[in-house]
Amino acid sequence: MARTNSRNPSDIRREIAAEREQLAGAVDELRAGLGEVTNISARLRGKLPIAAAGAGALGFVLAGGIGATMRSLARRGREGREKARFGRFPFVDRR
Q1: What is the DSSP pairing of strand 81-86 with strand 89-93?
Q2: Rounded to the nearest 10 degrees, what angle do helices 48-62 and 65-78 cross at?
Q3: 3 Rama class: left (phi>0) / alpha (psi -120 to 50) / beta
Q4: What is the reported pTM?
Q5: Domain ranges of the chain
Q6: Do 94 and 78 touch, CB atoms closer than 8 A?
Q7: pLDDT, tens only, 13-71
């Protein structure tokens, strides 16, 4: 059972041209919308010092900076002068 098509080639060409125009308009609208969303440099320009400080603080925390700093400060009070060492065991004067 063959299906007959009532459209002639010129009608099909006109429909294709109309679809192309609609598609081109949709692509232009999408590009304009993405341009506003992805323009991060313009959005950050006014807030750059705050963003840099936040990024530095976040990097410090993620790298374990708070724990390392506290361990370093706490260790200074307990360190003493090493008097002798036997293998891996040191004898320390903690006066």
Answers
A1: antiparallel
A2: 60
A3: beta
A4: 0.34
A5: 9-38, 47-84
A6: yes
A7: 999 999 999 999 988 888 777 766 667 777 777 788 888 899 999 888 888 888 787 77
One-letter amino acid of 37: V
CA 50 vs CA 47, 54, 57, 61: distances in Å: 6, 6, 11, 17
**CA dist 2 to 5, 6, 10, 51, Å?**
10, 13, 22, 67
Q: What is the 3-state secondary structure (H, E, C) of the chain?
A: CCCCCCCCHHHHHHHHHHHHHHHHHHHHHHHHHHHHHCCHHHHHHCCHHHHHHHHHHHHHHHCCHHHHHHHHHHHHHHCCEEEEEECCEEEEECC
Residue with tokens 């990097």: 59
> Considering just the CA atoms, what is the radius of gyration of the chain in Å?
35
- The two tokens of residue 28 are 């232009």
